[in-house]
User: What shape does this take?
Amino acid sequence: MSKKHSNSIAQEIVFSNKLLVAFLLLEGAAVMLVELAGARIISPYYGASLTTWASVLGVTMSSLAIGYLVGGRIVDKHKSPTKLLLYVLFGTALSTLLMPYLGNKFMFSFLEWPLELNVLSLAFIILTPTLLLFGTIPQIIIKLRSNESHDTGKIAGLSYAISTAGGIVGTFLTGFYVIPTFGITLPLIFVSTILLIGPFWFLLVKQKKWYILIYLPLALLMVKHYKLKQKYKQSAGIRVQHYNEGLLGQLLVADYPYQDRNGEFKYNRMLMINRMAESTIDPQTNEIIFGEYIHLMMKAIDPVADGSDVMLLGLGGGNLIKQFQKRNFNIDVCELDQRIADVAFEYFGVKNDFNLQIDDARHYLRTNKKKYDLIVFDVFKGENPPAYLLSKENFEHLNSLIKPNGIIAVNFNGFLNGKIGKSGRSVIKTILNSDYQLRLFTSKGKENERNMIMVVSKHIVDYAPYQNSKVYAELYSGQLISDLRDYEIPVSSVDTADALVLTDNKPILDIINVDAAKNWRDHYNLYYTNNFINQGIPMFK
Assistant: This one.
């Protein structure tokens, strides 16, 4: 091809303002897709915590900033901005395509590092190459559109406005439709392919640059990775029954093999959100297998009479509500994610005979005028506590929703000692500072293996009359919880001197809970995540 013909191709693109506008819209939308996909790639390993999102947002903004800076300098020195745009699009297509591979490749490379540095490093590896290249695209397009005009400022402003408009559309489309419908890998393959159309045509077809064909085997590799359901069905061990991606996290239902106390190999069915087990049942009977805290919770609410009005925040796999149904409670359930409710009904044998509200728990509490005998907090999202529900302001508001002898029962992790237990001690201090009485019960085992049930009320709950009650409270070991004193930690023994009173204007619970969250996450990664990987089951679709 002659140099003259090559230049004519370049000019054809330069003067196609509609094409440049399309590139800007695509760039803005693709940046948001990449950012959200990056967070979703990381969350099955390390949760969708404040740490994860802060790392993703920080890496996104810094990568784009560097891209803007580098792009502006390179484009001024490059003889052909058009060719530069084609090369950048080609590089962006490759890096976008490789994001799922990088996610699976490097996720366990930094486990020994502090959580913040771990997640930040992963976000950097997954996102920076792609977003840095994306950041150069607006600079190149501004240069191309400014060649024939003196209105550089106007063109720059309009270009960033168009890119931002694409980002707005991309955010809503990705969060509400693309990722929930297609997962992570397939949209990235699609965007990568769209980005490649221009470079493929002009660099390969017109200029015979054969190196661009490197994209094809990489694309085939990613398509093979995308065949998630086929891989699931082929697994002889773990049997995945349901998989779904949403903006709030990955939802997975898996039948997981285990050995019971008689030495017999069976399956338990696990509901996993971002690969953290939320509920576990026997798929043959739909009854609880593991879940000592469920039985402890039922014993802790023993004073609540059968047929009482109950509010449950967080449905999960429905282990708690099944026990509530046995006691004929009148139940209102608030669940944030409709997908979880659908799974509970279809895979966990939950009977839909209660009032289900799909809503944010804090909003539901603020708009609900009904009074209850019992309000239960079971709203852990993975390893992360619901910070906005455990504030002083929210506990004070709950006083208007419980009857005179009503109980608030809060499920929390079992850490109480040292730095790692500061979050638990802070919740305790917040409750006491909100003018409540409190009793603490923990399941057996080490702190990182147990749950803590906080029984909150205006008057101290007396369990003496209920020590030998027949309320269903059988542990997996076959033992019955009869005397709660065996599980109680005196509140007076908990040193809250360094603890904080949690408030709405200082939402610090996620920060002081980092060590506890990492401990729980590491535990699940050690036992479950590695087994999923070893059986060839991808962490994300």
Summary: The longest strand covers residues 402-413. DSSP finds 18 helices and twelve strands in the chain. The mean pLDDT is 82.
